[in-house]
């Protein structure tokens, strides 16, 4: 008799009880609610609102016939274009051989954790998938405490404290800047100070710079400038090139870490084989840059900065304690100031808060707990991406580069995001007060 339990037992699963990733979960739920006829503002999944630039789409079209498996580390011309991109944009000296291409940086992060036997160190809050990847693989996780008043950033002191408790342990720290979920970034001197600690304890750094090109001022600096020998720089097409669904990520290794790249190549070759060929050919154009891509980036940053500013100002008027952000398309909002009114409505944690918000205002958000914050904290992530990026880019490009976008640009071209934030503010203003309780 076959053992039925082998077919039914969840204990045999390797995902250790984890559900589908929070980002994908909220996206699928939002679409389901929309299919049911509900009005939903999609501020859950962090997907670029902008189109893939035409020059890159044309390259994909021209390369649709590319059908061969490509080398596991990636198409040589693309690897060269990525190395050159880092030289051009950040003055980092990489060779084509230092670059690895993968089907999304998320997959590369997973195989990095798979092949590197080190404890994962991440700040709280951090992007939703770093910790679950470590859980699935069975790695230890150490959360680094941060302070909202310091924009949730890792400090050299906290990192030093964590490392000094067990100085020889192999560790991988992931630093993501501008950050998902909060939109703040590090100054050069902050990166330098962190680099001193990572060097002292020989920690492997994964610099997740997927939002680097949507730094509002276009001034991304990598920690690889200050700790080149121990830093892998991660990026991809998803956030700055509007191509999340294309699934193309890049890792760039220093000469000292080639052994790690080779180990990842082994894991990649036995799992996904190689990254989609047409996408890799098209990505060459994206990384080569040129006037159209430069214009696209300039206008994308302009729209995102303006919208972030509009939303932050509105939230501050409502009494939220939130500072202007510096890049990307996220805000990390704390409802602590409204706790009494929320408690009176039975809302005491971030999951409950997001549930009430989606059901009463139609605004889909992610709870702070998905980013490693304590469950009882009333934080949420807002992904301000529910707008027609093509239209917004066209409109912005008609306004002279040295003039600011008009004050009502957000209302006009990013109406869903502005309305969603208005609805949150209205909802908060209707919470029970001392007098009504
Ligand atoms: N990075 C995006 C987010 O945080 C979603 C992409 C993903 O989870 O794969 O919403």
Question: What tags apply to this protein structure?
Answer:
single chain; 437 residues; alpha/beta; Aspartate Aminotransferase, domain 2; seven-stranded mixed β-sheet; three-stranded antiparallel β-sheet; 16 helices; globular; binds glutamic acid
Structure description:
- With 437 residues, the protein is α/β, with parallel strands linked by helices.
- It folds into two domains: 4-50 and 292-429, Aspartate Aminotransferase, domain 1 (Alpha-Beta Complex); 57-290, 3-Layer(aba) Sandwich (Aspartate Aminotransferase, domain 2).
- Helices cover 42% and strands 11% of the residues.
- The chain contains 16 helices and twelve strands.
- It has helices spanning 4-8, 22-35, 54-62, 76-90, 105-115, 130-137, 156-164, 188-200, 258-269, 277-288, 291-317, 339-344, 350-361, 389-397, 409-413, 415-429; strands at residues 41-42, 99-102, 119-123, 141-144, 171-176, 204-208, 231-236, 249-252, 330-334, 363-364, 366-367, 379-383.
- The chain has a seven-stranded mixed β-sheet with strand order 2-8-7-6-5-3-4, sandwiched between helices. Strands 9-12-11 form a three-stranded antiparallel β-sheet. A two-stranded parallel ribbon has the order 1-10.
- The longest helix has 27 residues, at 291-317.
- It binds glutamic acid.
- Residues 21, 23, 45-46, 106, 127, 129, 180, 383 line the site of glutamic acid (GLU).
